[in-house]
Amino acid sequence: MGLWIKICGITRPEDAIAVERSGADALGLIFSSRSSRTVSPERAALIVAPLSEHLEKVAVFTEPDWDRIEEVVERLGIDLIQWHGGPLSRDEDAKLGSFGVPWMHAIRWDGRSPLETPHTALRLLVEGRSAKGWGGTGEGWSYGALREVEWPLPVVLSGGLSPEGVAIALNSICSPGNPDGRRLFGVDVSSGVESRPGVKDEIRMNTFVKNVREWEALL
Length: 219
Hints:
This protein is of the alpha/beta class and 219 residues long. The protein has one domain (4-217): Alpha-Beta Barrel (TIM Barrel), CATH 3.20.20.70. Helices cover 26% and strands 21% of the residues. Helix 1 (13-22) packs parallel to helix 6 and helix 2 runs parallel beside helix 3. It is globular.
């Protein structure tokens, strides 16, 4: 199985169609007032309407508004929940696992501490900490530090990825000369494939996917 590629922060139907054309595996829809790329459930319904069932739909949340999460999952046919709201209590962890779809826990990692292990999560998304806040900052980090810690769950690499730099980031974890190194589950990109916040650039999306697939072919 190849690396799972998610393009996040989709705000327009035409960008969603371009994501599917690019060959990416998933798109992300953000339901959070913290983000400039947030969408309403009504807007999200228009965005996903033209998509096939083959493209995974990921809903990103930062607040434990369980009724809203349930509404979005049911209304939009969400395939995966992404929790981007920080540490969870055991009860909150269990609640996220109760919506009938798997969920992924996003971590703003300091590059040293053990990775958190949610009890019911399917995988971890790991990005670096940024003074700009969470998600879509465009800031890279020391990706290679992931080689120094245990991975309690499959890992999705995020934070500052771009068409120009994704192969370098991947090489820092598992290079073609070291095919037995850590194998990521996937990669997540947002601002690195945009022309401006919330507006995706189809050429950059296509190039990002192509560069990831070409990197994989070298392993």
